[in-house]
Design a protein that fits this description.
Layout: H1 3-7, H2 11-22, H3 26-59, H4 65-111, H5 114-119, H6 122-163, H7 165-172, H8 175-212, H9 214-219, H10 223-275, H11 281-293, H12 295-322, E1 344-351, E2 360-367, E3 372-377, H13 383-389, E4 398-403, E5 406-407, H14 413-418, E6 420-423, H15 434-438, H16 447-456, H17 460-464, H18 483-496, E7 501-505, H19 516-527, E8 531-535, H20 539-542, E9 547-552, E10 555-560, H21 562-568, H22 570-586, H23 593-604
Parallel strand pairs: 3-8, 3-9, 6-7, 7-8
Antiparallel strand pairs: 1-2, 1-4, 4-5, 9-10
Helix pairs in contact: 2-12, 3-4, 3-6, 3-11, 4-6, 6-7, 6-8, 6-11, 6-12, 7-10, 8-10, 8-12, 10-11, 10-12, 16-18, 18-19
Length: 608
């Protein structure tokens, strides 16, 4: 995206988000400003006291030099104390805003529907939660500090004008030039700041994919390709950072130069006034101090002006996520499920991820409480989609899905999803202990309940052999465990939630066929007396179901038991045969794969 396109993004939304983020913590803003007022009063008093010490304590020799020294020490102490208070208030405000924004963003991401996460890049979302929020935090941190600096500038201007208006004009004449330069700087900095944040997010995306997909990268020897992608994105960040540095390089020196020009004016005009007896040496010295005091406030304002465009750009990116409304909305006052049940019914269900491309067409299916139904079909036949509609990962575009006679759209999301347990094909475990992973749905579950769920899932035996038993950390994504072990923990996690409906989405597909019987035995135990939907392609797993539903291109084309369909339905046999070949190909090496495939098929009693 070009800088011109980026400059048209909603700046007002970014500013509004920042104001809304600060508003709940305005007490700390007030405290920071109050501390800044005292700090400013002490700070601007120092040059005046110094000038009086020179005029009276040194030139007039009134014998009170010690008094002026002690007064300076006292004022300096007050300034030091309120510097600390001011900075503490600023940092507390900034860190609180950062924490609140991050919590708000992550909570909103968890509320957003599956379709959003299907399209959103994880790296972009990580950048929103990290670098974008950090940019907002940087500006919020500077707000109380900059307010105090602005007060200092106002106080200096007032003091100089009260003492000698012409002297004040010489000292402050360059400030309008600074204002013009600052406006131009801010206007040109915004699109660069937005492009910079966008490129940082894209860079984060490449890093996240390279790390999370490290097994694929290494498996294909694609390290150089990923480094080339990273190099391209890093160059994009570099180019925009250089553009931002170029703008700062001509703007920030003005902040140092303009007060210096003011000093020249004071020395020229003030020196003549001293020679004419209109001003004292102390007056000129104090005026010089005041002008020097403008350097840091001007630098602070310059820093703020440099940060604000980038922070507004970052806030606009965050706002674009927060402004996304969840398509699957929670209904807190929804209908309530009966105490027991598990009946699932599809009535004329139509659905498509893209409304113009239907995936399911006129699905009518009834699953009775306690019944196990296997959904079978070729790739892209719609079987996984059927399972995703029950917990409302997506909403039907036509018809309805009923759980115990209640449309799932009329149920609160929490109650609906607590009633459904899922075991996905791609098992995800958190980098926590075995116990925490099993008790994910109920963190307060006792160790006895956790162990009982593990026993039902056939996991207790191998967990007991782990170094720390149920307290063993499973590592990133659980990759310290085998595929079968991860799958059994996932089943135990679903069992502990005690759902009335259990959905097993290809729960044995990633397990080696020689180990499948272990998972299958656990599934048979777990499924007993529980409504279960099994998405599978291996005959032995399908045979666990009471009934088989065959889908083809989004339509139910056959129903019956596994044995009946095997004997009477050619399409069913074809789907199983194709699935078996694919399964074997997934578990043999590339070298000699044809020979291994034929040998494996002969072992299984099939044919290629």
């Amino acid at each position: 995206m070009s800088d011109d396109e980026l400059s048209g993004l909603d700046r007002a939304a970014g500013r509004r988000l920042m104001v809304d983020a600060v508003r709940p913590h305005r007490a700390w803003v007030v405290m920071g400003i109050a501390a800044g007022l005292v700090w400013t009063a002490a700070r601007v008093a120092v040059p005046r006291i110094t000038g009086m010490a020179v005029d009276r304590g040194i030139e007039d020799n009134d014998g009170r030099l010690r008094f002026w020294v002690y007064l300076l020490l006292g004022v300096g102490g007050v300034q030091a104390v309120f510097t600390g208070v001011r900075r503490y208030a600023a940092f507390r405000l900034a860190l609180r805003v950062e924490t609140d924004l991050r919590m708000r963003l992550v909570a909103h991401l968890q509320r957003l529907h599956f379709a959003f996460h299907d399209q959103a890049q994880t790296g972009q979302l990580m950048a929103n939660a990290n670098s974008d929020i950090a940019q907002v935090q940087n500006v919020v941190l500077l707000i109380p500090l900059t307010i105090a600096s602005t007060l200092t500038m106002i106080a200096v201007a007032v003091i100089l004008f009260l003492r000698d208006p012409l002297l004040a004009l010489f000292a402050l004449a360059t400030l309008p030039m600074l204002q013009i330069a600052a406006m131009r700087f801010s206007h040109r900095m915004f699109p660069i700041g937005m492009a910079q944040q966008t490129k940082l997010a894209e860079l984060s995306g490449v890093v996240e994919e390279s790390v999370s997909g490290i097994r694929v990268v290494k498996g294909f020897g694609a390290e150089r390709r990923q480094l080339e992608r990273l190099d391209r994105e890093a160059d994009g960040v570099y180019e925009r950072s250089i553009a931002a540095a170029y703008l700062r390089a001509w703007f920030l020196p003005l902040i140092d130069l303009l007060p210096t020009l003011g000093l020249v004016g004071i020395l020229w005009y003030g020196g003549h006034q001293v020679l004419d007896g209109q001003l004292t040496v102390g007056d000129v010295l104090a005026a010089n101090f005041y002008v020097l005091m403008l350097i840091w406030p001007l630098r602070m304002i310059g820093m703020l002006l440099g940060q604000i465009p980038r922070a507004i750009a970052a806030a606009a990116r965050i706002d674009s996520v927060l402004a996304t409304e969840p398509v699957i909305a929670h209904r807190p006052a929804g209908a309530r499920l009966p105490h027991a049940g598990g009946a699932v019914r599809f009535v004329g269900v139509e659905f498509g991820y893209d409304p113009t491309v239907p995936v399911l067409r006129g699905i009518d299916l009834t699953i009775h409480p306690g019944e196990a139904v296997a959904l079978v079909g070729a790739t892209a036949s719609g079987k996984t989609t059927v399972a995703r509609l029950i917990p409302r990962f997506y909403d039907v575009t036509g018809g309805s899905v009923l759980l115990d006679g209640i449309d799932v759209r009329d149920l609160g999301l929490h109650e609906l999803r607590r009633a459904i347990g899922l075991v996905f094909e791609d098992t995800f475990l958190f980098s926590e202990s075995v116990r925490d992973n099993i008790a994910f749905a109920d963190p307060e579950a006792s160790i006895e309940a956790v162990r009982r769920a593990a026993q039902l899932a056939g996991a207790d035996e191998f967990v007991s052999r782990l170094p720390d038993g149920y307290d063993t950390l499973v590592g990133q994504h659980g990759y310290t465990l085998s595929g079968g072990q991860r799958q059994r923990l996932a089943i135990a996690r679903a069992v502990l939630a005690d759902p009335r409906v259990l959905i097993l989405d290809d729960a044995t597909s990633s397990v080696d066929p020689s180990k499948e019987h272990e998972i299958r035995a656990a599934l048979a135990t777990v499924m007993t007396g529980r409504t279960t939907i099994v998405i599978a392609h291996r005959p032995a797993t399908i045979a666990l179901a009471d009934r088989v539903v065959l889908l083809d291109q989004g339509v139910i084309v056959a129903e019956g038991t596994h044995d009946d369909l095997l004997a009477t339905n050619a399409r069913y046999r074809q789907v199983l045969a194709r699935a078996e070949v694919d399964d074997i190909e997934d578990h043999v090496d590339d070298e000699g794969s044809a020979a291994v495939l034929r040998a494996e098929m002969r072992r299984r009693g099939g044919s290629v």
